[in-house]
Structures are given as C-alpha cells and as structure tokens.
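Methods: example folding runs. The two proteins below were folded one after another, and each record is reproduced exactly as written to the output file, sequence line first and structure-token line second.
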Amino acid sequence: MTVLWTSADAARATGGDATQPFEASGISIDTRTLRPGDLFVALTDARDGHDFVRQALDKGAAGALVARVPEGCSKADPLLVVGDVLCALEDLGRAGRARSRARVLAITGSVGKTSSKEMLRAVLSAHGSVHAAEASFNNHWGVPVTLARLPEDADFAVIEIGMSHPGEISPLARLARPHAALITTVAAAHLEAFDDLSGIAREKGAIFDGLEPGGIAVIPTGLEVTPILQEAAAKAAQVVTFGPAKGSDYHLLDARIAGDATVVQAEHAGSAMLFKVMTPGKHFATNALGVLALAEAAGCDATVAAMDLGAWEPPAGRGQRQRIYMDVVDEGESFDLFDDAFNANPASMTAALEVLAGAAPRDGVGRHAKGRRVAILGDMLELGADENALHAALASLPAMEKIDMVHLAGPRMAQLRDALPRTKRGEYFTTAEKLAERARHLVDPGDVVMVKGSKGSKVSLVVAALLKLRQPGASEAHKGKD
C-alpha cells in the first residue's frame, strides 16, 4: 500500500488532533465508493457525514476527518478531529499541492471541461505519471479532494474547476496554483446566477487569479467575450490563443467529421497540423487545440501530443457512441447510441445535435424503410429568465432539419415540443422516468439515437433503459462486425 497521508502529516496540515495513528492510501467523501485504506472525510450537505463514520471505519477506512467524535465511535478509533471539516479538507488539498513536484494544469469553461481534462490525461500519459480526478470533481469539495489525493511523485496534475455562482472559481484556482490554465469556451450556462454572458466570462477568467509566477493562460478566440478573457489573462506571464480567428496561436482551419472521428486541420507556429480526434464533433476539434496548447505549456511537443489524442475516447455521458445489439444472432437488430446525458446548455446541445445530424443511420433493417436520426432530450437547467425561449430556439437550429424524430422530457422541453414541426414531434413527458418507461418504443433498428440533457433532468435514466435493450452476450457475438 502506498501511503498518501500519515496521521501526523494530516494533523500538521489541518491543525487537527489524531486520536490514534493511521496511514491512509486515499481520500473518500462517500462510503458507497470508499476503498479500504481511505481517509473518510465527514462533510455535511443534505446528510451529515458524521452519521456515516462508523460505517466507513467498518468498511476499512484508515481513519476519519471529523469535527467531533461521532455516535458509535470513541477516541479508540482513528479520528482526526478538526474545527471545521471543509476547511480542514481545503488545508489538506493545499498541503498536497505544496508538497507535489507535479506540473499543475487547470481547466474551466462552460462546455468541454471534463472532455478536455480526459484528452489531456491521455496526451500527458505518454510523458509521465498523471493525476486527475476520475469524475467531475470540480467544485468546492472536488478540487480540494483532487489536490489532497495528489501523489507526491506525480509528474502532472490536471485540475478541473467549475462554478454555478459568482465568486467560486478564484478561491479554487488559488488553491490549485496552476502553472498553466485553460478556458475551453464561454457559453450560456448558469445564466440564472449571472446577468449575462459577460458575467460568465469574467467568472471564468478568474481562473488566472491562481496562476503561479511565470504562468501561462490559454484562451479561446472567436467569441463575443474573447476581449474579456484577454483582459483577465493579462495577469499571466504568457497568453496562448486557440480557435478559428486569424492570428490564433493554434489556428483551427477546418474540422470534418469522418465516421466516428473528427479530422482536424490547423496551423501552429507556422506549421500545418493534421490529426484525428477519435470521436465525432467539431466542438471536440476546438477543445483539442486548447488541450494541445496546455500540453505544450506543460513541456510536451505539440505535434507528438496531437498524435497521442488518438488514445482518447469520451467517457459515458460525454458523447460516447456504442452500438446496442438487441439480438444475439441478427446483427441488424441494433441501433447506435450517443450517450451525452451528463449535462447540457444551448451551446453543448447545438454541438450534440450537429453530431447527430452528421451521423449515418442504416436503412432497411427496422420497422421504418429508412433509418432515423432520433434525439431524446431533457431539460437544460439554470438558464434563468430566458429558459423558455432558449429551449424553443433549438427547433430553429440548422441541424434540426436532418433529425427525424425528437422525444422530450421535462417541463421546459414543452417549449421545444410546441416549436417543432408536427412530423418531428415524438413522445413527451414531464419527467425522464416516464420517458424511460417507453424506451423500447422510442427506437428502431438502424436508428442513430442521441440522448442529452442537464444532469438534473435525469435523462440518463433513458440511457439506462436503452442499454437494457441490449441482449446479454450480443455485443461479444457481433464483435468486429460493425
């Protein structure tokens, strides 16, 4: 077991008192995912984490970070008692960052944070050991947890930083102290907490508040708010730009979807670049250029890094594509599923629908003579006063012309239902649970299906229901036949 924190080191970092000595190999804030040897952090949200300390210790936790001795425990248990658990977790993250030799890279943006983080992980893996959060650990808990988990000997650390309200990014960036930081893009997300896009841009730009001396700021071009990002990036020692605008350091010339990949043509430092991102979507091409800029800031060769992007595939819920076989014998009894159900705002919804519009269904294998492009969409949340208009506007997207059927879930999506032509209107329910019950009736062999919505819309329940249509053993039986 590799020791991440001894009780003595953790006590020194937090100013707490250890009731018993312990050695922890990891950090956990959830007993459901806790591994033996983890230090359990008893945070309080809807439930008080202290109520689960006994359970955590019984499951093999090395110790627990607590503000008091919980019920069912005593000082005979390995507890690290502190004044405030969240503050102590931040102290632990701060100490983890301070002792690490890693080149620290931070990412924020309205769209593409997690995908860019995973792209960067894939690219950097060829150059050393990489530490990055396994999930979207990008909030006031997730960032300190990621830093507290940072191994001392890691070569790189990739920190994702998110926000939902003003004032959240700067303190997290100061905690992470990145050597370089990337803003993927700025789009209409969390508008109910901001007056306009400019406010979102200023909040995203706060990631540069935490840059180390000599730090590098990576920002997108071609946005209405790019000047705001340039102003925020002025505090960096170096600013690197990427995007479609002429003069960008990483200049996107063309992005073309070719089957299950995106072919990217770009220019950097006077040289042409041509590479593939192994998933369809022009937005992935732009994200990839930002990732290459960040990789170069970490000391990697940009051309080599572009080739290494081929090792990346999107995780579940982030645009992952798979074929669902509903029959072990007949491979035609299948449909293609894009699982993009983790989150949504107007920009990411537009990008996802463009991918669906460019996908090729299969004809003559289902109940319909022609294969269909089917969108299954859940509400986009936190859009503020304009949410109804933003949902209805999806009907006017050019990509929507190529989509054959649209099934919808959520009260806000009623606006899109009313705006769609009747020929495209599929099933509609106010909840994703109800739509999930109809999963078998939403798709047909030969279809290409896209599922997308904000996490809170629970449209991932529809993904789960569609996955259950897969016959056991069918994927293996048809392996290599796609």
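Second run, written to the same file directly after the first:
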Amino acid sequence: MPTRLLLVADTHVPRRARTLPDDVRRAAAAADLIVHAGDWVDESVLDELGGSGPLLGVWGNNDGPALRERLPEIARADIDGVRVAVVHETGAAAGREKRMDAAFPDTDLLVFGHSHIPWDTTTPGGMRLLNPGSPTDRRRQPACTMMTLTLADAGIHDVRLHEVSRA
C-alpha cells in the first residue's frame, strides 16, 4: 500500500507567519507521514503537526534548544523500501548532488530545507533530492510552497510542488 508524504520546511512560525497556513493543515491531515526539514522556530508547530499524524523531522539553524532536544540533526527511515534521510542544510547549490552522494551513501531520497527554494534533482548516484521550499516565507520565489509525493514498491512517485496560500 502506498505511503503519502507531505514535505515541508522552513515554517518559521511565528516569525514569518502567526500560524501554519490552512493548505499545510489540510495536506497534513491527508498525509500518512509528515516530513519537516527544520526551522520550525516554535515548538507549537512540532506539536500541531505531530498531532496530525506520524512525523519525521529535524531541527534547523533557527531552532533553539527546546526543539534541538526533541529532534535530531539528521533523521532516517525506511519507508516502503525507500531509504529516506532528512536534514536541514546541504550547503551551496553548486556541487550539491555530488556532495550529497558522498554524505548520504545508502539513501534513496534526501529531503532538505534552509534555502526556501524548491529543489528536485537526482544525483549521479541515483538519489532524489527534494526541497519543498517554505509555506510561509517565499523569499525570492514566486510563491510559498510545499511538496507531496507517494512512496510505494521501493519507488518515489507523484512528486508535486504545491503553491501555498497565505490568505
């Protein structure tokens, strides 16, 4: 049976938004697993998303001691035969694919955040790299974003980038 994932990162609540956008809440309720790649900023976001269902998350550079006590720097899980890793920061875009192949050998899917820039590439070693952007702070992007995908039969399917309404 496929596993539906919601990917989010860089929620920055309450600095960039007072609360999570409704689009994120709806997607979290529909997901089998919520993956958050750091920069929650406030523990209330961890509690809210964790109350929506299973969660795989890491802390980011803007997360304080309370979140760092509750979350790892790197999270890993094997989901439907897909080896998943989550980290907040991967460094500069230039050379990212080769660096991540070296840093995460035995990983099929790496979810990351930090830049607020959506990213979807495949490394020379075959690892899929996904950054969902930010649902609350678009920075230089045309819209706030999140991602959904399905894992099934050791494969990554139906990766979709979604615009998030802040209204």
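Comment on the second run: Helices lie at 22-30, 43-52, 65-70, 96-103.
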